[in-house]
Amino acid sequence: AQYLRSVVRPAERLLKPLQFPHKLLMGPGPSNCPPRVLAAQALPLLGHLHAEFCSVMDDVKAGARYAFQTANAVTLAVSGTGHAAMEAAICNIVEPGDVVLIAKNGHWGARAADMAARHGADVRTIVVPPGEVFTLANIAAAMAEHAPSLTFVCHGESSAGTMQPLEGVGELCRARDCLLLVDTVASLGGAPFFADALGIDVVYTGAQKVIGAPPGVSPISFSERAMARVAARATRVRSYYFDVVELANYWGCDAGPRRYHHTAPISSMYALREGLSMLAEETLEVCWERHLRCARLLWRGIEDLGLKLLVENEDARLPTVTAVVVPDGVAWKRVVEHCMSKHAVEISGGLGPTAGKVWRIGLMGYNATEENVRRVLKVLQEAITACKM
Ligand code: PMP
Asked: Which stretches make up the Aminotransferase class V domain (predicted)?
């Protein structure tokens, strides 16, 4: 038999291997991966139910439990970036008509509200301006007013550089039969966080920030209360891919034999495993301390340049993402472009409500070093001088 010839010819651009410059990623993520993580990613593939791969998944579960500080049986990683974990959390807990309270002080609260609404929730919001955080009294009052069955709080609001205090929120939720969902994509590993002690029911993070793995697999954990809510649903979970009961089986979190649910992103899982392993070796305490030390150096350096930090209250600042107010007479975008084109250093503009108003500088995982703080300060200063309007 003679095959027909292909009609669409291979594009010239595909006929050479991939190449690009090395960049220092000092934006709000992804951050650069440590060489050990990249090496893990290059290991040979395994099948998605091979014993060795199940063992990698068990390592990831153990690493995620450590990072979240939880004993939850249903702790795993969803295949997808932070948004996938966010969607997995919401689609499993929310049923049409449920009242969901969203604490919104930036882009990520708005995104959670959008997702919850898509899943049929009756969304209520409590709002403070970007750069500010909620008091426990704010949250208590909103809960009393709306009587939600789920409350969403973003621990590290990366669009504004705030870190939301969580003490007491879990107790409020428990007293009202409400579940507590917390986004730690930008914060986990970079600041103290204790899922169980804080009474958190569902929590997720991303791989590409402090954990230092490529984006694409995202740890998530469901408490027993959360799983009881899932079991008591009147309607089926609308997503097959993110159905936590199916995922829990594939991840070996239930008593049954592991069944094929989907093909896990094998290589990305190796990388996540290695990132979590490095975090465990460093220990959370040392990692939290390293991020705070570097962040303080950055904050002081920014103020020494005569610039203003968006988050005035130091206690409410997120060590992993710092928002710097763009001064009058400086074109924020040209500064970002200058840092990249002249120095291959990424800093980022604002996002959502902070777009055009701030620069965001990330200090995450492998990149959270004093040397990188000094480098980014030098590059930023040069760029601002070069880009005065
Ligand atoms: N939540 C927060 C707080 C984030 O910072 C991000 C990523 N910037 C996300 C969720 C979404 O993660 P991803 O981009 O990996 O989908």
From this structure: 46-374
Output the domain CATH number for residue 257. 3.40.640.10
Position 389 scores a pLDDT of 74
Angle 340-341-346 (CA atoms, 0-180°, nearest 5)? Answer: 5
CB-based contact 195:221 (threshold 8 Å): yes
Among the listed residues 191, 186, 224, 222, the one whose alpha carbon sits nearest the alpha carbon of residue 205: 186
pTM as predicted: 0.97
Q: How far is it, in rounded angstroms, from Cα 389 to Cα 385? A: 10
Residue 87 banded pLDDT, cuts 50, 70, 90? very high
CA-angle at 177, arms to 118 and 96, nearest 5°: 20
Q: What ipTM does this complex have?
A: 0.99
Running DSSP on this structure, what letter comes out for residue 160? Answer: T
Residue 19 lies in a domain: no
Tell me the C-alpha distance between 280 and 176, whole Å: 35
What number does the ligand 1 atom closest to the CA of 155 have?
3
CA of 329 to the centre of ligand 1 (A): 30
pLDDT over 90 at 1, yes or no: no
Q: Tell me which of 31, 78, 79, 83 to substitute to probe ligand 1's pocket, judged by most ligand atoms within 8 Å of the beta carbon.
A: 83
